Amino acid sequence: MNSLIAHIQQQMMKPKMLSNGLQALFLVPLLVILAISNWANVTINSAAIILIMVVSLLIGLHKLANQIASVIEKGADNHFR
Question: Which branch of life, at top level (predicted)?
Protein backbone atom coordinates (compact mmCIF):
# COMPACT_ATOMS: atom_id res chain seq x y z
CA MET A 1 0.00 0.00 0.00
CA ASN A 2 2.83 2.38 0.86
CA SER A 3 4.49 1.72 -2.49
CA LEU A 4 1.24 2.57 -4.28
CA ILE A 5 0.96 5.87 -2.41
CA ALA A 6 4.61 6.66 -3.17
CA HIS A 7 4.04 5.86 -6.86
CA ILE A 8 0.99 8.15 -7.00
CA GLN A 9 2.95 10.95 -5.31
CA GLN A 10 5.76 10.57 -7.85
CA GLN A 11 3.28 10.68 -10.72
CA MET A 12 1.63 13.82 -9.36
CA MET A 13 4.95 15.65 -9.18
CA LYS A 14 5.60 15.16 -12.89
CA PRO A 15 5.11 18.52 -14.62
CA LYS A 16 2.58 17.35 -17.21
CA MET A 17 0.40 15.53 -14.69
CA LEU A 18 0.60 18.42 -12.24
CA SER A 19 -0.24 20.94 -14.95
CA ASN A 20 -3.23 18.88 -16.11
CA GLY A 21 -4.47 18.53 -12.54
CA LEU A 22 -4.25 22.27 -11.97
CA GLN A 23 -6.05 22.97 -15.25
CA ALA A 24 -8.86 20.63 -14.24
CA LEU A 25 -9.06 22.32 -10.84
CA PHE A 26 -9.32 25.75 -12.47
CA LEU A 27 -11.84 24.62 -15.11
CA VAL A 28 -14.38 23.01 -12.78
CA PRO A 29 -15.89 26.35 -11.60
CA LEU A 30 -16.07 27.62 -15.19
CA LEU A 31 -17.88 24.49 -16.34
CA VAL A 32 -20.29 24.66 -13.39
CA ILE A 33 -21.12 28.29 -14.15
CA LEU A 34 -21.68 27.52 -17.84
CA ALA A 35 -23.84 24.50 -16.98
CA ILE A 36 -26.19 26.34 -14.62
CA SER A 37 -26.52 29.48 -16.74
CA ASN A 38 -29.81 30.46 -18.33
CA TRP A 39 -29.22 30.12 -22.08
CA ALA A 40 -32.75 31.13 -23.15
CA ASN A 41 -31.91 34.81 -23.75
CA VAL A 42 -28.57 34.33 -25.52
CA THR A 43 -28.29 35.96 -28.94
CA ILE A 44 -25.61 35.48 -31.60
CA ASN A 45 -23.69 38.55 -30.43
CA SER A 46 -23.71 37.61 -26.77
CA ALA A 47 -22.83 34.00 -27.62
CA ALA A 48 -19.82 35.23 -29.62
CA ILE A 49 -18.69 37.37 -26.69
CA ILE A 50 -19.10 34.45 -24.28
CA LEU A 51 -17.14 32.19 -26.63
CA ILE A 52 -14.29 34.70 -26.89
CA MET A 53 -14.21 35.09 -23.11
CA VAL A 54 -14.17 31.32 -22.53
CA VAL A 55 -11.36 30.81 -25.05
CA SER A 56 -9.26 33.59 -23.51
CA LEU A 57 -9.89 32.14 -20.04
CA LEU A 58 -8.82 28.69 -21.21
CA ILE A 59 -5.60 30.06 -22.71
CA GLY A 60 -4.84 32.06 -19.58
CA LEU A 61 -5.59 29.14 -17.26
CA HIS A 62 -3.38 26.87 -19.36
CA LYS A 63 -0.46 29.29 -19.07
CA LEU A 64 -1.08 29.82 -15.35
CA ALA A 65 -1.22 26.09 -14.65
CA ASN A 66 2.03 25.55 -16.56
CA GLN A 67 3.76 28.32 -14.60
CA ILE A 68 2.52 27.02 -11.25
CA ALA A 69 3.62 23.49 -12.15
CA SER A 70 7.03 24.83 -13.17
CA VAL A 71 7.45 26.67 -9.87
CA ILE A 72 6.37 23.62 -7.87
CA GLU A 73 8.70 21.35 -9.83
CA LYS A 74 11.77 23.60 -9.68
CA GLY A 75 11.13 25.22 -6.32
CA ALA A 76 10.84 28.88 -5.55
CA ASP A 77 13.78 31.24 -5.72
CA ASN A 78 14.09 32.85 -2.30
CA HIS A 79 17.09 35.02 -3.13
CA PHE A 80 15.45 38.05 -4.74
CA ARG A 81 17.50 41.23 -5.18
Answer: Bacteria
- Residues 46 and 18: their CA atoms lie apart, in Å, by 34
Q: Which residues of 19-45 are buried (b: 16+ CB within 10 A; e: fewer)?
A: beebbeebeeeeeeeeeeeeeeeeeee
E strand segments, 1-81? none
Q: Name every residue whose Cβ is closer than 8 Å to that of residue 14 and which is 6 or more positions away in sequence.
A: none
Does this model's pTM top 0.70? My answer is no
Output the CA torsion sign for 49, 51, 53, 55. Answer: negative
